[in-house]
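Sanity check

After download, print the first record. It should look like this:
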Amino acid sequence: MGTRYGLEIRAAASSDATGLAALLGEAGIAVGAADLATRLDALQQDGGTALVAVEWGPPSGLITVSPVRTLEAPRPFGLITSFAVAIESRRRGIGRVLLKAAGRAARQAGCDRLLLAAAPDQEALRAFCRAAGFTDAGQMLARPLLKRGAGEA
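Expected structure tokens:
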């Protein structure tokens, strides 16, 4: 997508999976590189976008956004499903640049807004998002679709 001050924002590729798995692991999300590569490909095949921030070496940031259509709105919204910046790369504008790039990708997909779910205990993320122009828009609830005791296939 572009380069700014040595920071490159581009579409994530399967070859980024090892570095992205380490980045997500730092954020408390354990996923193997091979599984992550498969998930990246599936996300992009389903119309989603995965963007990676690279300065030098391993990825320093990741954001994923998927368009979601509802009956309540004439246009889809972009749902940010992953957002991570490496601890040593925070407070340098990488998160803002990733949000801007995700917004551009969502607009190109026909979306009219971005949504990001942040738990009440994620106050740092919530403060960052408010500073980036997000407003509180309700809460999400979740329910698993697997039967109790059944593993993923």
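If your output differs, re-run the checksum step. Summary of this record's structure: The radius of gyration is 16 Å.
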